[in-house]
Amino acid sequence: MPLTVTDQIEIADWEITEQFVRSSGPGGQNVNKVSTAVELRFEAERSPNLPAPVKTRLRRLAGRRWTKDGAIVIQVEETRSQARNREIARERLAELVRKALVVPKRRVKTKPTKGSVERRIKAKKERGEVKKLRGKVG
Question: Domain Prokaryotic-type class I peptide chain release factors: where (predicted)?
C-alpha cells in the first residue's frame, strides 16, 4: 500500500523497502527469537514524486540517515510488535518528507536606525571618557 504524505505527494511501494531484524534491549527470550525491529529504506533520490528542491531540503533534514546512494534509512525498535514498529517507521518517514515540503522564509537584512547608531556611538564615547579618567594622576 502506498504511503500518503500529503494530498499531492504519495510514496509508491517500489520506493520503500522494509527489512526486519532482531531488536536489541529488553524483551527476554522473545528478543532472541523474533525479528521485530524494522529498517525502512526510502529511495529518495530516485523518487519521481518529490521535486528537486524538496529532495535537497530532505537531504539536509535526514542528516546521517541519508546514504551515499541517495536513500533514507530509518530504524525503529521501540516496541515489541513488528507491525507497530513498521507503522512508526512509516510515520517518521512521512513526517520527514512533510518537514522538507515547507519552504523556509528568506531572511531580510535590516539596517539599524540612524537614532540607534547615534545612541550607540554616544554611549561608547561616554564609556571611553570614564575609562580615560581612570588613568594615573599627573
Answer: 22-38
Domains of the chain: 3-101 (3.30.160.20)
Distance CA 19, CA 16 (A): 10
Q: Return per-residue pLDDT of the chain as tens, 138 residues.
A: 677 777 777 787 788 888 888 887 766 777 778 888 899 999 888 888 888 888 899 889 888 989 898 889 999 988 888 899 989 998 999 899 888 888 889 999 999 999 999 999 999 999 999 998 887 776
120: CB partners within 8 A, 6+ apart: 112
Distance (Å, whole) CA 94 – CA 132: 63
Q: What would the DSSP string read from start to end of 54-91?
A: HHHHHHHHHGGGB-TTS-EEEEE--SS-HHHHHHHHHH
The set of residues, in sequence order, having a beta carbon less than 8 Å from that of 17 and lying 6+ positions away, is 40, 41
> Which residues does residue 38 pair with via DSSP β-bridges, in sequence order?
20, 76
Please give the distance of CA 45 from its chain centroid, rounded to a whole number. 17
Give the predicted TM-score (pTM) of the model: 0.71
